[in-house]
Amino acid sequence: xxxxxxxxxxxxxxxxxxxxxxxxxxxxxxxxxxxxxxxxxxxxxxxxxxxxxxxxxxxxxxxxxxxxxxxxxxxxxxxxxxxxxxxxxxxxxxxxxxxxxxxxxxxxxxxxxxxxxxxxxxxxxxxxxxxxxxxxxxxxxxxxxxxxxxxxxxxxxxxxxxxxxxxxxxxxxxxxxxxxxxxxxxxxxxxxxxxxxxxxxxxxxxxxxxxxxxxxxxxxxxxxxxxxxxxxxxxxxxxxxxxxxxxxxxxxxxxxxxxxxxxxxxxxxxxxxxxxxxxx
Length: 280
Hints:
- The chain has twelve helices and five strands.
- The protein is of the alpha/beta class and about 280 residues long.
- A five-stranded parallel sheet has the order 2-1-3-4-5, with helices on both faces.
- Helix 8 links the parallel strand 1 and strand 2.
- Helix 2 packs across helix 3.
- About 35% of the residues are buried.
């Protein structure tokens, strides 16, 4: 049996594309751990296994598109693969999470076969002075990583990684300083404040470029250019290798639109060497 034909892999495929609550993630995680047994568990038994209530299991089944848990269990029994041949071992839940991320990266590579949207995004980011970069909660790390590297080649990058009443003021300040584009990283679970901030940014005249987990994410309706990169959902917390890599691809595209990008990088290297900034 290949890794993609294992019971755990089939469960991972079933869960992909569904936005689950923390309780529902806990159920999904428990199902992956006991993938071979799940098709034969009652809703009460699954609830006990996951440490949740029986109604939570029912709501979980409905969230996956089934009428209830009995329908989900019937589906699992229908798609249950044959037992693994002797001498083969299915991937464990951690390996499955890695395999899922590899698949997300494959999808991203396929999407980048058309480089047009990324090149257009790079042009917009390079032309915006300053360049505000927004990322709240789960997406804050992605925004910080982009802003850290972008500041080495872009003359004015402004990181917006904390919400609150001041965030609209910071958008206003960027617009007054000449910003034309805002880059947003938006990952599940999507904070309402991100949608509100992007709405405000568009009203202020900014073009919104967004990296999101799906073309159908809540931020899609308030983005001028949305670049999707799926997140992994096989662990208790999302994994975001594809959005991170897409951010680096955007950096490359932005550098292509900044004629002095290479010179800035070389200047930084000279200063870093003079200061002994890095251990060689």
